[in-house]
């Protein structure tokens, strides 16, 4: 007869009998009791999971947002940050296996380091961009390397959280591993939802990127420290408790000091990027607006760190954009973008203009153009003219509504290489623009530089043609644009030219000296609207066989 054997609980170590054959169960090591009931302790652990997950997602979104603003091409930056971070989370999970025997102390240390690294990441990345962005050489892409480094470090620390929390929640009450994992991930995912919604709707508009990241780090440190020191303090030695307490106090002190100095830091960083003559620096709901000069220095307008208006050559740029399109009927003119009023000033110089509608997405730009004296002087105070009407709306959305046809449409929009503006250079967008054109109307498009970005320029041309429009490409600048050649990548200077898109110009101290434009219309365009030498100059850089850019397949990444 076989006698039944008493089952040994999972996780209880076994000892070997004297003969070294049959394993015998050994009583588990004594565990210090918790200061609260198991149900309360379980709730506190899940609440800690919730808060830590919310903070972790805020760190991810903050890196994506800041990198998109500083480097450009938000799709690439989001892909780099998220993929590196998810990979690093796997490394962190593996590394946490070594801390399972000291799960409470390990979790407290991980949260303290994560709070410091994540909370200061935005400020460190911004500092590297502001003060070292123009170093060149081996540090030409330094801020990109720093972005990857922070993504890797934060990912490793986030990845170490769940294995340690799994040990801690089992420490409270043994349960089926599948049920414990389900509880942890449920709290984790709900926390991620709250963090993902809090970042764009609460932290970013109310506190900004730097202060928002610092506050998130403080919440992270408080949540991790309170959970370990409050619930699992008996799992730590006296020395361990004091060490963790001091570490959290130091982290919170550093984050609080940085938050107190964040305004001075931003002011110094702007001066490092734009010079000391910064007159206006405001974050609207759409973008950051910075204005320098205007009295004794040349006026410059920066939108999200990119030079949009240079007082030195804005007249040459806007005249080249507007004048060819005004050759023909021009009673009704539509300007897409151009909230600064400079394109409208060129339009109003032509007799016979009865109405100018400006569709600008950012009301802050329109307010600046109305109220800033130096910019008002440049644009001739066009908003005081009763013929000018400003509409605050996305140009793509506005074009989808019913409108009376326009004789001229001017597209004075950000460069097509910027991810957020690629839809404004798509085949669908130009199809909508063609619908609001009169039968003999003209569309003028700023298409980037054919000398430095020929592929982007000729993709705009191919996209206009795919929308059923006839095109005349032309170039304006000093000298002649070179034929297409292998373009040097990796240059990342502080300033961007009007037409140079998200990549920094090779010489970050000035705007580019050339621009490319497209004059398009549903019918053949009038002879002589564009000087032949400008057309020939653009044709020298032509690239054939390019596919048009669409909403679902943007093709402006060069």
From TrEMBL:
Pfam families, sorted: Spermine_synth
Catalytic center residues: 412
Binding residues annotated for spermidine, in chain numbering: 318, 340
Parts of the chain that traverse the membrane: 43-71, 77-96, 108-133, 145-169, 181-204, 210-232, 244-262
Subcellular location per the Swiss-Prot or TrEMBL entry: Cell membrane
Membrane topology: Multi-pass membrane protein
Binding positions (S-methyl-5'-thioadenosine): 287, 360, 394-395
Principal subcellular localization: membrane
Keywords: Cell membrane, Membrane, Polyamine biosynthesis, Spermidine biosynthesis, Transferase, Transmembrane, Transmembrane helix
Catalytic activity: S-adenosyl 3-(methylsulfanyl)propylamine + putrescine = S-methyl-5'-thioadenosine + spermidine + H(+)
Disordered: region residues: 509-536
Superkingdom of the organism of origin: Bacteria
Pathway in which the depicted protein is active: Amine and polyamine biosynthesis; spermidine biosynthesis; spermidine from putrescine: step 1/1
Matches recorded under InterPro entries: MFS_trans_sf, PABS, SAM-dependent_MTases_sf, Spermi_synthase
Segments forming domain PABS: 253-499
Example GO molecular function: spermidine synthase activity
NCBIfam families associated with the record: MFS_SpdSyn, PRK03612.1
UniProt record similarity statement: Belongs to the spermidine/spermine synthase family.
Subunit comment: Homodimer or homotetramer.
UniProt function note: Catalyzes the irreversible transfer of a propylamine group from the amino donor S-adenosylmethioninamine (decarboxy-AdoMet) to putrescine (1,4-diaminobutane) to yield spermidine.
UniProt protein name: Polyamine aminopropyltransferase
The species this protein was found in: Streptomyces aureus
Gene: speE
